[in-house]
Design brief:
The complex is a heterodimer of chains A (591) and B (171). Chain A has 591 residues and is of the alpha/beta class. Chain A contains 19 helices and 17 strands. In chain A, helix 9 packs across helix 11 and helix 9 crosses helix 15. The two termini of chain A are 44 Å apart. Classes of the chains: A alpha/beta (591), B alpha+beta (171).
Chain lengths: 591, 171
Amino acid sequence: MNEEYITIYINDKKYKVKPDQTIMQAADACGYHIPRLCYHPKLSIEGACRVCIVEVEGQRNYVASCAFPVSDQMRIQTNTPQLRRARRDIIELIIDNHPEDCHTCERDGNCELQRLASSVGIRARHFDGPRKQYEIDLSSTSVIRDPDKCILCGRCVRMCSQIQQVHNLTQAHRGFGTVVMPAYNMPMSESVCTKCGQCINVCPTASFLEKNYTQELFQKLNDPDLVKVVQFAPSVRAAIGEAFGIGAGRNMEGELVAALKKLGFDYVFDTQFSADLTIMEEASEFLERVHNNDKLPMITSCSSAWMKCMEQFYPDLIENISTCKSPMSMQGAMAKSYFAGKIDVEPKKILSVAVMCCTAKKYEAARPELEFNGMRGVDIVVTTREIAWMIKSAGIDFVNIQAEGFDNPIGLSSGAGTIFGVTGGVMEAAIRTAYELSTGQTLVDIEVEGVRGLKGIKEGSITMEGQEIRVAVAHGLGNANKLLDIVRKEPDRYHFVEIMGCPGGCIGGGGQPYPGVNSIPMDENMLAARAEALYSSDRKKTIRRSHENPSIQQIYKDFLGRPLSKKSHELLHTHYKKKLPKGIVPEAAKI
Amino acid sequence: MPKTDTKQDQAKLSELKEFIAKCKEKPNPQSYLIAVLHKAQELYEYLPRDIMDMVAEQMNVPTAHIWGVATFYHYFNLTPPGKYTIQVCLGTACYVKGAGQIMEAIQDELSIETGGVTDDGLFSLQGARCLGACGLAPIIMVNDKIHGDLTPEKVRKVLKDYRKAEKSKAS
């Protein structure tokens, strides 16, 4: 017998489990899924909801299994009639303060609270508690906050402070009057919210939602005077199937192109094309910085939540940030300039729509710094969730649809553009091109393993022209925080740094489908499956380097000239400035 | 940034900063947040936002966290208190002698709710537990002065007297 194991009894069955874990963890390992609500394995234990109670022999009261350690010879009951009743009463009390509006709620059918109530067998409302009556905060371009639906599990607050380390949300006031809000009850638009949308992903109800643009988009799709152009991000194709009940990890690229055409878009382009374009500009910018001894490390600028985070918390690093716009904004700019010229249409007649895995992209699209010729590059941004809803709402049979291809001339992409959606992908894509542009030689081993995977901070290096180039990658703003503290202390340690605002990179974005029945937000298996969908797509492509993409070569020949040309700077680059939001102090907000 | 226009402002701010500096010398400095907020309220009578920002910066605690603490405890005032703070005793003795009606009369007379401040900044209104003057029940305390044996009519007169006294002081 292994001495490292202890004996416990769950529902009178004997199990050998590891010590130093909670009852919930032990029960999970033994195949018992104790119902839970405020618990999340990546967040600190709150023990607030009491849904996960179990009976432990010798304990006077039921204990919260998420917070109670196992011990040798412990006898645990998870499903006695009395316990089931107590658990059901607890959940009944939680929902009796919750609005009775499931059938008009945006999360109807996708709601964790709804599922939980159903799973414990609540079939009637025995209590009718007081309801909350607060105003919905619609101020933000990206994230709306509805305190009436909040059940105070605190997952959003922990997500924002522990994983993202943005510390925007807190539980203010107390008792029944407790409300999740930013400091000073400021509107979300004026708070330090980076719009990453991770609060939406972890919310078990509809207390946080993306700002929804689906109705506006349906309207515009019916406007005969507009040329309707759409692009979608790499990560959208890797996750949208989940919204239709397809297991994580299936790449639905062609199906999504077809569905968007059926929705009424005239041209469907690929954000991966402009990911290649980003690499051409960004790799050139990087090489220029290295040759001219300019500010290093260069830090990537694709992630819009990271952009906002940087402007408010890291203004000292502005000179390190690549001036490249994100692929979405580059694509928007190309649609309204290069493409508009090709089809001979006035740029203002083009409706430029982006389908993104991201809520912060809604904010990015509205950034005045990104305008060119008095226009926004992207007019409307919808998330993966929103487009999935639109496809369902329009009655399009997504699961059985016949796949179609992207439109030209800004629809073709290399494998490098594909992997942008995964943490480390931008770095890997940039290395593939920077190496070959600088050395003139072919990079044989183009899969840069060091920057792959879901480790919070990853490091790697590559030798170019006899010089060792050291790179680092962080995903999730909390990991970014740790990495950038190193960068501040040791400015010479790295040459190139990639930051993605969301855990896992864009595949874990704040606009991705809600987890299904057997999954949870930030589930590593789910993220790995989405990542693999993109990596396998890269492997299958014959063109895997951005500079070998013929459409990219064409656009430089016909329109942009060369990377970092005057025209590129006008259309594809931007600038940043220190923006200190009210109620926050630079440097200090991070612990 | 907190005001530093007058010598008094500067003195208050440096006293608070010194207090924070002392807390930071101790182990787990962030656990002194409540003590620091107490000190701030002692100096400013409430917790102004710029002071909470300053505390956030000095103690390296997120502003949202400070806001959570400041709103959790009744003790902390988030708006400047009135010149006269009225505490209505809601202890058992006062309550059976009609403290409820006294409270209602004050709310009506001043057009504010419990916890509020009048528009002219003269009065703020709070409920209190037993103030230890049960022989005079029902009572209210206006700053340090006790007014006992009240009726709704009498309490209205007490408030009017304060107003009158203020007016005559002003003229």
